[in-house]
Design a protein that fits this description.
With 542 residues, the chain is α/β, with parallel strands linked by helices. The chain has 16 helices and 23 strands. A 7-stranded mixed sheet has the order 14-17-18-13-12-20-21, with helices on both faces. The longest helix has 28 residues. The structure holds nicotinamide-adenine-dinucleotide. Nicotinamide-adenine-dinucleotide (NAD) binds next to helix 8 and helix 9.
Amino acid sequence: MNNAIFNYPMPTNEPVKSYAPGSPERKALQEALKELSGKTIDIPLIIGGKEIRTGKIGKVVMPHDHKKVLATYHLCTEKEVKMAIDAAMKAKKAWADMPFPSRASIMLKIADLLATKYRPLIAAAVMLGQSKNAYQAEIDAPCELIDFLRFNVHFAQEIYRNQTNRDALTLNRMEYRPLEGFVLTVTPFNFTAIAGNLNLSPALMGNTTVWKPSTTSLLSNYYLMQIFKEAGLPDGVVNFVPGSGSLIGNVCTNHKDFGGFHFTGSTKVFNSVWENIGKNLSKYKSYPKIVGETGGKDFIFAHTSADVKALAVALVRGAYEYQGQKCSAASRAYIPKSIWTPVKAEIGKMLKEIKMGDVQDFSNLINAVIDETSFDNCMTYIAHAKKSKDAEIVFGGTGDKKKGYFIEPTLILAKEPKYKSMEEEIFGPILTVYVYPDTDYEKTLKLCDTTSPYALTGAIFANDRAAIEIADDILHYAAGNFYINDKPTGAVVGQQPFGGARASGTNDKAGSYLNLIRWTSPRSIKENFVPPTDYKYPFLVK
Ligand code: NAD
């Protein structure tokens, strides 16, 4: 019997391990890499806790060595999507009725399993399947996912604690019900932490999900399902359905019990699903809650007072870590003419040293882009810049897809501020720089604000405080995560809640109560202890 009010204090962030030579974590990770890279597993669908194999097979390969098959996986058909919806609906009542401390314990156990027993396994799966180096894998899953889980329990408690006043003779209460129906989650390839969080944040609030994972992150995503089960997440709370996004999206958004959509991925896909939802509105019991974090064309804007070295490091790390495949990656920069030559020299020095290659060689900072489609897309932008009179390739500009999908970190100098690669999201290791006249600071800030439809992350580098104030003002709506003298990537749960507006999403801030509250349907309850027994109000008396 639960007869106490428990307390979940604000946690601290999971410490990021160094993986330095000789460290125990490096040894454990290398063993896990050896094990996973030496076998091919079979990934089934998992619906209501049952493994389902459809025989429609796809392959999971290493992006940096694409002949190596890490797994085969089974693709769903319409039948399995409907089964997943039924399983989510069947599991819903018992899960929603489970007391919050029990749901919280399952989430905290998943976090602790990730922090200990499964840390090397999940990091190795992210490295091999999504081509991240050891550090990039560490800050994704395990660490960020652990943070999402631990902080969300605290934030959920704060939501549940949020109560109204009482009046004499009455009691008022707020109840935070899960949504009616199931939640469709569609997750991106680039962060396993996001894939986990998109399911577990609605689940923490008592919802059940139909999960469409990205086919290029299936290895780590499948291991997550196994960890969820070991931690005691009941069957049917998260239903794992690899397959075609449009098929799964269409079946789910056509269903009367569709209650919510939790998405991270490109703006184009988000818009298409939202349009479908709009067309089907009359079919649903409630207006579905729609949460989507989408694309970005994230900027670094420098003032003449910027520290040249700090700016150059932010540009290199912000643009090229994880091959620029972060929604927050710096992909356009505005540099004043007077500091461009030293900034360029600093970037050049770093790029000369930086190595690219297989994730299992820990000296490589840069690995491969996710797949051939992404490789070809990036190379199209590079080819365009090579031919255009409005652009020039300053660093990089080559790619090779024979063994893995490798693209050299590339810097394009745009002679026109609205050159193609200053405006469009590329999602690869390509940074475009526009050099502006020192005297045009405010004019160029306005240009930065209006050049792309996105508003996810952005950074200003300046030591002049008044210049920072001006940038803060002109760029007020240009980024949901705004950085001063720091790179625009690497948001930390509990420190910088993440998300942007404009074409970058609904800005419901993953890793904060703002996201969790979207998975609730609040109910106000008023209880009258002494209800009136006469209809007449005193003013009616003559
Ligand atoms: P994507 O949009 O190609 O795919 C995302 C998911 O949608 C995948 O699971 C995919 O299979 C699925 N999908 C594809 N077509 C679909 C359809 N018609 N209906 C339903 N689902 C469909 O994105 P991606 O390549 O996996 O990830 C990169 C994108 O994600 C970039 O645009 C990036 O900016 C964005 N992203 C944003 C954030 C953020 O927090 N704002 C975080 C990570 C990634």
